[in-house]
Amino acid sequence: MPAERPTFRQRLAAAAAFALLAGGSLLAGAPASAAATAAPAPTPAPTPAADNGLARTPQMGFNNWNSTHCRAEFNEAMVKGVADTFVSQGLKDAGYTYVNIDDCWALPNRDASGNLVPDPVRFPHGIKAVADYVHSKGLKFGLYSSAGTKTCDVQGFPGGLGHEQQDANLWASWGVDYLKYDNCNNTGADAKQRYKAMADALRATGRPILYSICEWGENQPWNWAAEYGNSWRTTGDISDSWSSMIGIAHRNQSLAPYARPGAWNDPDMLEVGNGGMTDTEYRTHFSLWAQMAAPLLIGSDLRSASASTLAILKNTDVIAVDQDSLGKQGTVVAGSGGLVVMSKPLADGGRSVTLTNETTTTRTISTSVDAIGIGGASSYSLKDLWSKQNSTITGAISASVPAHGTVMYRVTPGTPVPPPTGVSQLSDLPWTSAVGGWGPVERDRSNGEQGAADGRTLTIGGTTYAKGLGTHAASDITYHLGGACRSLSVDVGVDDESTAGASVAFRIYRDGALVADSGVRTASDPPTRLSADLTGGTKLRLLATDGGDGINYDHADWANARLACGKGPAAGTHAVSDLPWTAAVGGWGPVERDRSNGEQGAADGRTLTIGGTTYAKGLGTHAASDITYYLGAGCSTLTTSVGVDDESGGTNGSVVFQIYRDGTKVADSGRVTGADAPKALTADLSGGLELRLVVTDSGDGVDYDHADWAVPRLTCA
Length: 717
What we know:
Blueprint lengths: L9 H4 L24 E3 L19 E4 L1 H4 L7 H13 L2 H4 L3 E3 L25 H11 L3 E7 L17 H11 L3 E5 L8 H15 L4 E4 L17 E3 L8 H12 L10 E3 L12 H13 L4 E3 L8 H7 L2 H7 L8 E6 L2 E7 L5 E7 L5 E6 H4 L7 E5 L5 E4 L2 E6 L4 E8 L8 E4 L7 E3 L6 E2 L14 E3 L2 E3 L2 E5 L2 E6 L4 E10 L8 E8 L2 E10 L5 E6 L5 E8 L8 E11 L6 E4 L7 E3 L6 E2 L14 E3 L2 E3 L2 E5 L2 E6 L4 E10 L9 E8 L2 E10 L5 E6 L5 E8 L8 E11 L1
Parallel strand pairs: 2-3, 2-9, 3-4, 4-5, 5-6, 6-7, 7-8
Antiparallel strand pairs: 1-28, 10-11, 11-12, 12-17, 13-16, 14-15, 14-17, 18-30, 19-24, 20-23, 21-22, 23-30, 24-29, 25-28, 25-30, 26-27, 26-29, 31-43, 32-37, 33-36, 34-35, 36-43, 37-42, 38-41, 38-43, 39-40, 39-42
């Protein structure tokens, strides 16, 4: 991006370190019970999505900015040449689809009608002609604007603020397929409203346009941007250096719970091939972006790309990890002394693993199948995605990794393995088989009867769900449990996209035994909650059949399907900071164990201190934060003191602490400020599967909201 663009806020300028984070659900839901009965379903926590059907896997393509900026070589000939190269060099076949142009494509002033005008020197035939050329190659075309009065370049090209519908209509008429919408010259207007205005305008055109929100992470877009767009920048601009690239990777790693099909964390474009890093470093760059399920947008001039650059960009094994249909972002499972292990769940039941050496000397990095989350099989196939070597292992994974290098493996169990310990959404887990009546079974979307991802947001009786399985009767879905799971709770019903005559019966089987039955549900019925006891079962089967009147319009949703597996903490009283969490997300910087939150890298805080009182044990966070622990229905009580850490400045900062047992709030601090003394909270967790510790701002923004959970103690039977 232009060097003249505003500096990203100082608190994110330093390279943040990673948060040790294991995959887990952040969605609230009703507790599962052992009874296999139907009851009225509670309303799930709302998690809206843009629902334009695009970017079901992270977008892949090209953007010119990193290689050309606003120089004269950015023109029509270059864009057409890149499209030609996509085809001739096999990049299109590898999955790259979008040819996008960045800033400086327009004249500095709108015309008399207020329309944007393409620069006649750079684009003598106009933008539509360029889009038509790109489309003729079987590719898609994207362009750029900013949610402000002007774009980011110092020449001051017109931005979209106040012209949203006019600009969107013009772009749609040109055949634009992708919009990157920047954040410069925004007049201080509310970010959500600015980006919503363009989302509404794009939707109103009726043309599918992928919406890439480039807000730089200023207002924590991971908390709200999925409602409007398909991806959101999580950081400031990348530059072509190791320190910039790895620092951005660190900041993006802790945001894994927010990524899902159609909605991705975007750590910025690729620098591969621009010359500022070695090929070893570029392989690390490409590996980490794929492991983080990030958009893969080439930022180098492909017309002159070297053979080594093309080899990196066309590594189809690495691309397959990025594009895996499960849609999970990888998480850091181990990291110490610059040696980092990440694990990413894959749709086939395996994991991709990156072993990254951030130090300046060759080091050995080791992990295991248990550590990456797929223990339980007798053997595993191991494929090195760069060397292409294949081997068989029984548990240990290890490699000698060069300085600034990454070894990337695909690990596939020889037999199915049990789901991970904790509460998981079924749509996030690999099934062993899935057969739909019309069209495929969909993850986190309804069934549109035809191709993959042709449905919409799961909706039953007016209630929308971010997570679940969309099917059509008759459908049959199976999962391997391995005797490790205890219960399933799920809302079922006929999706609202069906007509009034639709009717479906939902049944859950444990090893062939019926353990839950909804009876016949019609299109006019509200969601029904099913709870099934799966204790000791090795196979879970979800069956949706017609209600006895044929299968026409029988769109059947398994919504907010929460599977509880494994055992919770051992009997006794535990310091919560000594227990493994299943998910942890902080507002600025990672959640810290036994230290305050310093806003940037791991362990950059200090002793937890509230109102002058110091604490040796606890969790240091920054609003908005959300930490989840698996209890396995075996714990009774949580006690803790809470408050704004003194590092906020004494009177700065105001937050609210909330404790949830499954989907029920069981303790609330009310508004707590930096001037307040520690406040004691006690929560009844009896029978709960999950504990969530949530910190929100108190309605006045998140500045200085350093929030401490001091001496949290969990009592379990």
